[in-house]
Design a protein that fits this description.
Layout (H helix, E strand, L loop, with lengths): L1 H10 L3 E3 L18 E3 L13 H31 L7 H37 L14 H6 L7 H15 L2
Antiparallel strand pairs: 1-2
Length: about 170
């Protein structure tokens, strides 16, 4: 893994190498892990849908997002373990506890988001990423760009939300 990092660092600003488990896909010739993305690359509708470049782009985006969330979670753990709750002022202690509760709720939401990121990465691995899990239709690239964990097309998501509202009142 350190060698892959060195190779990526050598390429510098010209290209980014996506990280991944090379042993899983060593037999495939055009896996997302093996694709070097040009700087500033963005998927377009002019390309073949979910070609190796697009898959590498979304894998990279998801892995960066996952790393940021894990880093924030580690920072929260460090901050909470270093908080001094033995302050004489009850108001100070109450504020610290309130902030800690908010941080923990945020991290819980991010934990659920991490599960969705992992699910999206698995869909990239199995070749189903970018396609609606209900209709098997392609998910719009703009939707995936805005929400790379999307597993439903816009139409299917709207239908899902309508059904959810209808059945929530029951």
């Amino acid at each position: 893994m350190a060698e892959a990092s060195k190779k990526t660092a050598k390429t510098g600003s010209k290209a980014k190498k996506t990280s991944g488990k090379a042993d899983k896909s060593a037999g495939k010739s055009a896996t997302p892990e093996a694709i070097l993305l040009p700087e500033g690359y963005r998927p377009t509708d002019d390309e073949e849908f979910m070609n190796p470049m697009q898959l590498a782009y979304f894998r990279n985006k998801l892995e960066i997002w996952r790393a940021e969330l894990l880093n924030e979670a580690n920072e929260t753990i460090t901050d909470l373990s270093q908080e001094n709750l033995h302050r004489p002022d009850q108001m100070d202690r109450a504020q610290i506890e309130s902030n800690a509760a908010i941080d923990l709720r945020t991290r819980d939401r991010e934990r659920k988001l991490l599960q969705k990121i992992e699910s999206a990465l698995r869909r990239i691995e199995d070749g189903s990423y970018g396609f609606c899990v209900e209709t098997d239709e392609p998910i719009n690239l703009r939707r995936l760009e805005a929400r790379p964990i999307a597993s439903l097309s816009l139409h299917a998501q709207e239908q899902h939300e309508r059904n959810e509202r209808t059945h929530r009142d029951d």
